[in-house]
Amino acid sequence: MFKAVVTDVFFDLDHTLWDFEKNSALTFQKIFKSNELDIELARFLEIYVPLNLSFWRLYREEKISKEELRYQRLRTAFDQLGMFVSDDDINQLAEDYIANLSTFNHLFPGTLELLDYLKGSYKLHIITNGFEEIQEKKMRNAGILDYFKVVVNSEMAGVKKPHPKIFKMALEMADAQPKTSLMIGDSLEADILGAKNMGLHTLHFEYQKKLDHTICPSVMELSEIKNYL
């Protein structure tokens, strides 16, 4: 579908290539043990995961700072669990989480096969809202950094997806045109609508299988992207 027109493929990282939820769960398992916190991981994640998404939305909308995001998602989760955890312990957990997250390197099934398939025909790039200090570590430790010509994060751009400025910066750094560029990501708002508003082609990686829309084509497995490129 896109093969005849696309020269550059832009990927989101977390929840698209890098299996954020799996790596995050392993990180919490590790830091709870190292900090000697007796917490049922499954119960914690049941509360934390949706909270994290809601706080990330506030962060994306510039309503909270990075520091507030890191603190409040943990504080709110523990409060909802009915657990008292001191501010010092919250701050230590927040630091430990960032320090350890990139040490787990699970990718979505088919990531390496897809990148190998695409690299000879397209220029590949990353546009991510993740924190600058760990996104490159994630890619390097997972063995995928060298696939990408340009990696743009929200801290470099000074704005977060879906703001037009981050897509404009990525296109300029990649020396790419919107009409010959494709954005692939999991977030309908940040990745798909953000890129579409800038004139890029879009392909929605809908791995959670929850949404039904006609905004652009959707795939539920990375291997399906080969049908479009």
Automatic annotation (TrEMBL):
InterPro entries assigned: HAD-like_sf, HAD-SF_hydro_IA, HAD-SF_hydro_IA_YjjG/PynA, HAD_sf, PGP-like_dom2, Pyrimidine_5'-ntase_YjjG
UniProt-recorded Gene Ontology molecular function terms: 5'-nucleotidase activity
Residue spans crossing the bilayer: none
UniProt xrefs under Pfam families: Hydrolase
PANTHER family referenced in this protein's UniProt entry, alphabetically: PTHR47478, PYRIMIDINE 5'-NUCLEOTIDASE YJJG
Cited NCBIfam families: HAD-SF-IA-v1, YjjG_YfnB
This protein's name: 5'''-nucleotidase
Species the sequence originates in: Croceitalea dokdonensis DOKDO 023
